[in-house]
């Protein structure tokens, strides 16, 4: 019931596992404590049918996710491209329209969306992801919500609706819950707005892992061996300048010289710290709720929409899914057809609370409207809901509300005594993505390695 | 290390103590577990000098706080009126102006404030404090922030500033952090806007307790005797339909048939529940941060401002205190003069983070501007900061951000199995005040008594 190590890592999500790996590579002993009965955190591959891997959590990497690309290479996991060919189906004005028809009907509206994205990029240019509170307009931009700012951009209803859908696609909360500065932090952390907020999230979602994303945490954990302990929710962290004592539910006590807390901020805030953490840190973690996302996979015998010239993507105002894509296996695998429907933000909350039959009926009807009657009859629907999962409590990630960045942002990554902070929310690049989880884990590991070696 | 009772109460703040008292009165055995080494929660009287009671926390009751009035009567605690005579000092346009001069210069601006308060009262008339999400305009009003709505009311800069100061005086966060619906819940919970948002908070702050507010929790706890256990932070609540097992740091395990969690929502959310709570409840407690307030008492040999025709109240845009009042002892006691300076919302965060000497220098200078050179030389300044207190983590209370009420509000008071929820945040009347703490404690007690007797 007692373990010793140099560095205790709380959380065996990607960020924690990476931190532990780096610590070990530096000649120090890590010990990873995981609350759940599995590793991976927000990465969770489910083999719904033999050889059919559904990513209930993190699914893609983008073209510039070099840390993830290198990691996959090291671990011997191969990539395949996201299927993108064909037209998207739109439902923004009551009708269902295919890409070309939609764009010729609403070209001017979409130009409005483009204009706003360019404005966001100009604004983001003055924001640093490491110190958003230092941006010249930080004080102004952290006091207006994204929704409020969008409303003031002179957009047509169709353009405003499109922008809401695409933004909720990354924030996974209504745009009135996040400040404009908060959105700009996301934009600058990920490059340019078009990579993040355009219909296809082009830059962020281009490739997947053959065999499933879960292989990554599983292989990382395998290399750590008995240094990863499952079913050990951390209740308390006692800390002194060069000493930590971490107590788990069930009685395990882990002692070390440093601790890396690799949990989403709201979960990190639930641990009892002794001595207690400074007020600024505590107020921050009270203000970074996990977002609301639910993925629903509709599985068919084949991806019949491809032959029909459709890419499996929908953009829909009525929902319940506001976006979707083709989440099939590699093209030459002859696998089934899979449409992944995203319920994000309000949709996840409202339709997520419906009885499953009601939600899936609505989803089938929606898929039928977009991809034809065959789409209304999937063989199987598999849902991945994260709010109910005790050790995650929401996806994809967390953004503070208004004034959160300017008043409390500095506490997000600043170490406190022997405590360092990881998790994708603390990343400067690609925060919210696997790439960010790796970056944050590496940065936290550097902090502890520098003082311990 | 093991105790049994019918009802375990978590938290010996006012709400928890009232719940325990009601449970005991109904012939059932309560057991109160308190994390801190004292009872009272956000009630904390400090005897700064012999006979001089400073209320670092809850200080007043209002004219319609009948539950508190009755409680004080039962406990044999006498009341005395808040000193109100004289003029308020204003600093909204760079100058310091006394009441009459200010109102004759800015009568039109203040009429604008009054107009907005009347509008709020009209809107509040359609909101129920028990079910704010059911209000006809709930969906619209929960998606705009109070600050955004104020900005759209065509107010002069002076009027807008006044409204911000008075509103932050109750919310203790910038008005852009709370939705309009959230403000209306506060208004309807407390009667009319003028009782809450006017300069003097007339209705809510009319009387104080001779000898200090802390007498109330102390006497309630004394009557409960060994049924109150201090220094027992709750780590975990295991629950089944008619059974709860509550585990504290230090090893105490308390078993009962029901549990009343009488903690602010954000603190209730830190406990590990087994089985885990529904996602809606968890997402709610991720979204109800404790606000930011700091009280600073400046103590003088006598209340010299009274002879000068001033009531000890200031309204100041530059701050650091945006409001103040005369917090002296009863008029005939011959006690010292005490100005209570409120640092709330942004002031609490910004000036609260300054070194104490810098903050108190700024405060002395401000008091001097308003109440004369003598006010710049207090004998003593005593501060009550709540964000740093581990078992409170912010004052005065908590409000959810945008969409919080419409998407998660129903989880605030709804019992979950054998778990009931108390604390002033869960009250329908005078939420945020001691009156609300009592109401909520009584309501939670009723829930458990009904099923257990």
Mean pLDDT across every amino acid position of chain A = 96
User: Strand fraction band of chain A?
Assistant: 15-25%
Shape of chain A: globular
The CATH architecture of the domain at 2-42 and 214-288 and 400-452 in chain A can be given as 3-Layer(bba) Sandwich
Q: Let me know the CATH homologous superfamily of the domain at 2-42 and 214-288 and 400-452 in chain A.
A: FAD/NAD(P)-binding domain
Strand order of the largest sheet of chain A: 1-13-12-11-15
Poorly predicted ranges of chain A = none
State the name of the first-level CATH class of the domain at 2-42 and 214-288 and 400-452 in chain A. Answer: Alpha Beta
Q: How many DSSP-defined strands of chain A? A: 21
Helix content of chain A: 25-40%
CATH fold-level name of the domain at 2-42 and 214-288 and 400-452 in chain A: FAD/NAD(P)-binding domain
């Amino acid at each position: 019931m007692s373990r010793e190590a140099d560095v205790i890592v709380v959380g065996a999500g990607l960020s924690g596992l990476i931190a532990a790996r780096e610590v070990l590579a530096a000649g120090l002993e890590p010990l990873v404590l995981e609350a759940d009965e599995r590793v991976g955190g927000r990465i969770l591959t489910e083999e719904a049918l033999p050889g059919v891997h559904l990513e209930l959590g993190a699914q893609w990497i983008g073209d510039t996710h070099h840390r993830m690309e290198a990691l996959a290479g090291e671990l011997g996991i191969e990539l395949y491209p996201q299927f993108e060919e064909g037209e998207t189906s739109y439902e923004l004005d009551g009708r269902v329209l295919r890409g070309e028809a939609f764009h010729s009907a609403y070209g001017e509206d979409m130009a409005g969306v483009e204009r706003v994205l360019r404005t966001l990029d100009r604004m983001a240019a003055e924001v640093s992801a490491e110190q958003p509170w230092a941006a010249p307009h930080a004080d102004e931009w952290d006091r207006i919500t994204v929704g409020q700012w969008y409303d003031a951009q002179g957009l047509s209803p169709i353009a405003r609706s499109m922008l809401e859908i695409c933004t909720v696609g990354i924030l996974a909360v209504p745009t009135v819950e996040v400040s404009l500065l908060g959105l700009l932090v996301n934009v600058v952390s990920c490059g340019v707005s078009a990579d993040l907020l355009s219909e296809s999230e082009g830059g962020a979602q281009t490739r997947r892992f053959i065999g499933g994303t879960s292989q990554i945490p599983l292989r990382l954990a395998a290399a750590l061996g008995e240094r990863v302990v499952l079913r050990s929710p951390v209740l308390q962290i006692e800390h002194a300048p060069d000493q930590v004592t971490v107590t788990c539910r069930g009685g395990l006590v882990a002692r070390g010289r440093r601790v890396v807390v690799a949990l989403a901020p709201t979960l990190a805030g639930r641990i009892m710290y002794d001595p207690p953490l400074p007020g600024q840190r505590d107020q921050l973690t009270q203000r970074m709720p996990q977002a609301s996302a639910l993925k629903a996979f509709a599985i068919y015998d084949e991806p019949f929409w491809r032959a029909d010239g459709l890419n499996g993507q929908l953009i829909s105002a009525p929902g319940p899914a506001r976006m979707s894509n083709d989440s099939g296996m590699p093209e030459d695998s002859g696998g089934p057809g899979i449409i992944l429907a995203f319920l994000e933000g309000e949709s996840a909350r409202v339709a997520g609370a419906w009885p499953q039959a009601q939600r899936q009926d609505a989803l089938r009807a929606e898929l039928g409207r977009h991809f034809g009657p065959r789409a209304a009859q999937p063989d199987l629907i598999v849902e991945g809901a994260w709010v109910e999962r005790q050790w995650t409590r929401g996806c994809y990630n967390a953004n503070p509300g208004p004034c959160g960045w300017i008043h409390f942002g500095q506490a997000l990554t600043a170490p406190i005594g022997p405590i360092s902070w990881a998790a994708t929310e603390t990343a400067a690049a690609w925060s919210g993505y696997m790439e960010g989880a790796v970056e944050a884990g590496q940065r936290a590991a550097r902090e502890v390695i520098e003082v311990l070696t």
